[in-house]
Amino acid sequence: MKIIIKYPLSFVAVLLSGSLFLSSLSLAQNSFANTAQTNPSVTLDVNDVSVLLPLPSTENWNLLPQATTTAAAGTLLPQEYVQRLPVLLQGVKNSKLYPDLRVLGIRIDPCFMEGLTPTRCQPQIRMVWQPLLVINGRTNTLDVTLHSFYRLSDEEFPELVAALKNIKAEHSNSAVAPKKSLITMGVNPLLAEQGLDGDYAKKFFQTIYKYAGQERLARVTFMSLFGRETVWFFGGLDIRNGEATAIRIPRLDPARNTIQQFANVVAPNPTWFRGGMFPVPQSEENLMLLIEDSRKLSPDHEEDIIKATRAAFRFENPKLHNPGTVDCVSCHVAQPAKVWAIRQYPWLSLEQASSDDTYYTPEINLKNMSPLQDRTNIARMFGYFTDQPFVAQRTINETAEVVKYINQNF
């Protein structure tokens, strides 16, 4: 299959847009007319539909899906695509990273869509990739990511849900199965218990591979890391009939909307901001005040601080924003910007001021258990930061919407 990549001349280095792409479910109610039979006694939880894989020991990397793994629709992530991407890690050729890419996260989405215009949504499986490396004899990760999107038909998605329910039912008596009200999002507990070579992992991967591969590949987004790990670039490619074109990032000047940069040069303890985003979004909903230079803020900025923090909560809310309505950096840094502002200005009661903008659902435990949430240099949405699992609040909120939809409709 001949692969053609078309880039604007300015498209020189791009960072993963990770889990930016949200599930908009309001138009999917009638999409799955011929629903496959599912087990009504089994409900899926957040770790069943957004599956964070455990980091293996250094000798077991190949238990994780590899870029060269063959699925039903072909190679998961063909090298031809990766070779044609901009440099992902400063000073390292993509060909050097390719053999060490592994899938660390898998998400299912019944209804991917973008923008405000009512359009038919697309069921998908998505895979989050990171390069692995060894530090002091232990598996670690680079802060570089690729994110691959695979199309499913309306008939196939119910089949996928039924299969996932059946696999879970086989392991429902596991000692690690927590009470529903206590379930928080993190490394999948069954995979953590049984390992990547256990029965659950084998059946889970077999099910996912049935609906993945090159012929289903619809999009690849990516994250590049530059400037001594202080600069990240965001962008992506849409793929149709083997031809890839640069994604247009929402809210940016049309003349330069295929790439966006986030910089934060604070070191060695990145718990505040000095850098910002470039280009800056053309919108009043803007985080630039919070992330440009923390030292410049004063009591005179209180009204603007509240406004920017409310914007961060809105960017995390899948009922208010989707991939077609928010730019990459604003989505990826909403959590560190929000966390920093709340910690820095407790007298402003920012959580209370943002209550109308905050995503909430009583059915799902939305508590974020990720470590390092005070770090302002983590723009990751789903995966690992060094050897620590990290899930952004935006991803938790999106996943909650997916869980509710699946359990109500299948």
Write a concise keyword list for the protein shown above:
signal; disordered N terminus; 15 strands; alpha+beta; 11 helices; 410 residues; eleven-stranded mixed beta sheet
Brief write-up:
The protein has about 400 residues and is of the alpha+beta class.
How is the topology of this model organized?
Elements: E1 4-6, H1 46-49, E2 50-52, E3 70-71, E4 74-75, H2 79-83, H3 94-97, E5 101-112, E6 122-135, E7 138-141, E8 145-151, H4 156-170, H5 189-194, H6 199-209, E9 217-226, E10 231-240, E11 243-246, E12 260-264, E13 275-278, H7 288-291, H8 302-315, H9 328-344, H10 350-353, E14 382-385, E15 388-391, H11 393-409
Parallel strand pairs: 1-11
Antiparallel strand pairs: 2-5, 3-4, 5-6, 6-7, 6-8, 8-9, 9-10, 10-11, 10-12, 12-13, 14-15
Helix pairs in contact: 4-6, 8-9
Question: What does this entry look like structurally?
Answer:
The chain has 410 residues and is α+β, with helices and mostly antiparallel strands. The chain has one domain. The protein contains eleven helices and 15 strands. It has helices spanning 46-49, 79-83, 94-97, 156-170, 189-194, 199-209, 288-291, 302-315, 328-344, 350-353, 393-409, and strands at 4-6, 50-52, 70-71, 74-75, 101-112, 122-135, 138-141, 145-151, 217-226, 231-240, 243-246, 260-264, 275-278, 382-385, 388-391. Strands 1, 2, 5, 6, 7, 8, 9, 10, 11, 12 and 13 form an eleven-stranded mixed sheet that branches. It has a two-stranded antiparallel ribbon with strand order 3-4. A two-stranded antiparallel ribbon has the order 14-15. Helix 4 (156-170) runs antiparallel to helix 6 (199-209) and helix 8 packs across helix 9 (328-344).
